[in-house]
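REVIEWER CHECKLIST
Item 1: Sequence provided? yes
Item 2: Single chain? yes
Item 3: Sequence as submitted:
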Amino acid sequence: MAEPAVQEKQASSHEAVLEKISRFYRMGGNEVRALDEVSVSFARGSFWAILGASGSGKSTLLNLLGCLDRPSAGRYLLRGADVSQMDDDQLSEIRLRSIGFIFQSFNLLPQSTVAENIALPLYYQGWDPARSSQRARELATRVGLQERLDHRPMELSGGQQQRVAIARALANDPAILLADEPTGNLDSATSREIMQLLSELNEQGKTIIMVTHEEDIAAFASRRLYLKDGRIDRIEP
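Item 4: Structure as written out by the authors:
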């Protein structure tokens, strides 16, 4: 076991550390290894792209990082805490307070306004309405939607909807932003705008881990992790 000083140093420089993480599934009488002893550290303030063919383990890895699933073996340290041993209530609290999610399909509430969608995580944290509203306005301004606070998702373009989703992911000031194909439903020009926004957030210190199958989108990240058959094939640069 690492000495306390070593653990403290590791926790201070890394948002997330995976130590020989494996995820097995049973399909009939067969065991499928979606991830097989994956070890990687994600430094605080880094920007990662995770790439690989369909079935390589990208989604499984993102689900584990987002505490939506548990590893079958190995340890997952988030800011020094071993979340791989936490129960469902503890994982729910981690997701609410430490992780921001950005999805390909935006996942916005269609009948809620931009402001209400952005403030949704704060509602679950028990923020009072006035404070939540102020935070939503600040984040809408941060993503360039300060004039759209009272609009609903169907009144926005795809790029604007993804900006709302990014603002919502930032609401709880998470340790990590996890993006699952964030430009998958966008045209090329809008995709570049969204990636520029994510790059700006990273430059401001936010740790971002993104799954993508597009090399030109992955090029916005400072590091790229390639998965193959549930194992790390290579890491660039």
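Item 5: Key structural point noted by reviewer: The first strand starts at residue 14 and ends at 27.
Item 6: Recommendation: ____
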